[in-house]
């Protein structure tokens, strides 16, 4: 028996390869099917099943394409209704895979079809659970994503309470927990950086599995402090229910080199967003006017999903040389399939064609500290999450979380100069690019973010005052 966790850091997502006696199963696959096919071929195994724990909201699964290429059966738990062929499993149903068995545990709460898969090894021992978004390491799945009609988040939280206590906490302590996500995912509130653990340890350390916890206490704690889900979540769910096309078709359309004139024409006349995926430093130094920066070396796909609301939005992009296919692949993972090509030769080709560029003023944390001492007042904007801001922030800084920058744009005055920072410099450059693209020219980025600021003598506080950004 072999179990391999295939973890994708950008999405904080865990897919799984299970193999026994020449038969393989994939749990919660990403959009691209080739890595799973190649893994099975290398092991001399045939992919027999594709197990989906639920309709994912934060990424588009490649299960339909993978099934078409391998002949595998797609398995969902009870209540899953799709536009393609699946095996809708019954609670308690058992699937044989080589010499092991996989048992269906219907665990509604995160969503109503949410299902945990229990792996029973060759000796008949309950070995591991693939818990999807039902149980994370240190947390549980948020219960607000599948609200529908009269079904509220409190109702779903109540179902989740019952699922955890009746289906999961009754399992032996030495069962291994393999969740669908880790720290950084928006599918939970407080996930651990660890991506696997023993169930017994989770019973001791996970707040949601606390002994003698009442259902009322559970509902209150699980629903408290939930931020609105990213806007692309509902669209990803719809794609996963209807079945998304394969990656090869998307690559054929998007992996197209464009010269500077063609690139400019598509951006100007076809309404394509210009996405710059280079480093924050490169973008600050020089970029195409009105381009949006979201660097490939960061939480790229989730930030695209959070900030570009229309999955059908046409895009052209600039990428580090040799990483063009990676950009298209990572966009497709969250449902952005309408890429129309990339700038061949990068920004050098753009400038060589005599075309205009723009830049973002960027200063170091020590230089920022000096300006604070010299000037009576600076407009300092913290684009981190509200919880980060509340924990500690620069005295007098205003909170303008990147997640909600479009909804709060009217709070920024085009005539004023703003000094932006995040934790390390990635998010603040995204914010600067969005503001610049909308005509806010007096933007200064603080390189290194709050980490660098905290190493200076700039006063900070954890006092949270009402936002007065105007």
CATH topology type of the largest domain: Metallo-beta-lactamase, Chain A
| CATH homolog superfamily of the largest domain | Ribonuclease Z/Hydroxyacylglutathione hydrolase-like
- Which percent bin holds the helix content? 25-40%
Mean pLDDT: 95
Structural classification: alpha/beta
Major sheet characteristics: 6 strands, mixed
Spans of at least 5 consecutive residues with low confidence: none
- CATH hierarchy, class of the largest domain: Alpha Beta
Structural domain count: 3
Give Rg in angstroms: 24 Å
Task: Give the assembly state of these chains.
Answer: single chain
Q: First CA to last CA: what distance?
A: 60 Å
Helices, by number, come to 16
Count of strand segments: 24
